[in-house]
Design goal:
- The protein is of the alpha/beta class.
- It folds into two domains: 214 residues, Rossmann fold, CATH 3.40.50.300; 74 residues, Alpha-Beta Plaits, CATH 3.30.70.
- The chain contains eleven helices and 13 strands.
- It has a six-stranded mixed sheet with strand order 5-6-7-3-8-9, sandwiched between helices. A four-stranded antiparallel sheet has the order 11-12-10-13.
- The longest helix has 17 residues.
- The two termini are 32 Å apart.
Length: 303
């Protein structure tokens, strides 16, 4: 293990509201993470504390082995790009890039210019007059061209159209392959970014409910579909995280990898097995963790 961020018992309270509740985790060097969860789950608050833009109520944060607050050595090695990034009223995109070029020691001007062209960003138009998509492009360009050792993307790419988002994903993987660094993506577009992610951290109601390699997550659950009685018999004793029924047909999502014997039993019972997407698994896991008394989770909040 080669952690670049270590978090222990981190808590953030706003008066009577607990935004982040006693979380502990590590972020490894040169890995692409997904920090996933619903709106208001605590994702932005966590990233703000890791980048020294917010103070923890309690707990410990170490970035590159040091406390990040008012620590120029650490802060110059991180880039935090957020959807709500503010700029001076008269700032142009080229001013934002010029400032970033001075701040980030690994800044790649050629990459910035390439992305500016690919994302069709007007450099001489004030940032406050840019469309939402163009404003998102400014953040994406800074995040990629900074080549910071740790880069946080707090959903700055949501304003981009599908073509521009795909350009971002392609350039991220391309540049990460040539220049490895740690990337933390916060996103509601879980299925869209799932192929980029090597590890997922899922936060729900301020707590970490999943911290696993993406490949392990994909094998973690399955949907069992077929005659309700046969499905119920198969899932008996297993951890069920979701259940749907229509007439005599049920679809039940269970946790745990299926063995060869399991698959033989399923075939004999004429039951089908369908994969669970990363988004479905996260939605259903957070529903299951919340318990039956909590309000239902809207899958749209994770898109």
């Amino acid at each position: 293990m080669n952690p670049v961020i270590e978090v222990q018992n981190l808590t953030k309270r706003y008066r009577d509201t607990v935004a982040v509740d006693d979380v502990s985790f590590t972020i490894e060097k040169d890995v692409i993470y997904g920090l996933l969860g619903r709106n208001g789950a605590g994702k932005t608050t966590v990233m703000s504390m890791l980048t020294a833009q917010n103070f923890a109520t309690s707990g410990h944060i170490r970035v590159f082995g040091e406390h990040p607050y008012e620590n120029a050595r650490v802060l110059r090695r991180m880039c935090f790009v957020r959807e709500s990034q503010k700029y001076p009223d008269d700032a142009l995109p080229k001013h934002a890039f010029g400032t970033a070029r001075l701040f980030f020691p690994n800044w790649d001007q050629d990459l910035a210019e390439r992305l500016t062209d690919e994302l069709q960003l007007p450099l001489n138009k004030t940032i406050k007059k840019l469309s939402r998509g163009q404003l998102s492009a400014v953040g994406v360009i800074i995040g990629l061209a900074s080549r910071a050792e740790i880069t946080f993307f707090d959903e700055p790419y949501l304003g981009l159209d599908a073509v521009a988002r795909q350009i971002f994903y392609d350039r991220l993987i391309e540049d990460y392959t040539e220049h490895p660094r740690t990337v933390i993506l916060s996103s509601h577009l879980i299925d869209e970014v799932s192929n980029l992610l090597e590890r997922v951290l899922v936060i729900d109601r301020g707590r970490i409910v999943m911290d696993e390699d993406t490949d392990a997550v994909r094998d973690r659950a399955a949907n069992i579909v077929g005659d309700s009685a046969a499905v119920d018999a198969f899932v008996a004793g297993r951890e069920v995280i979701h259940r749907e029924s229509l007439g005599r047909v049920s679809s039940i999502t269970v946790l745990g990898a299926l063995t060869a014997d399991d698959r033989q039993r399923l075939a004999a019972a004429q039951l089908d097995v369908t994969p669970v997407s990363l988004q479905q698994l996260i939605v259903r896991t957070t529903q299951h963790a919340a318990g039956s008394t909590a309000a239902p989770i809207d899958e749209g909040a994770l898109r």
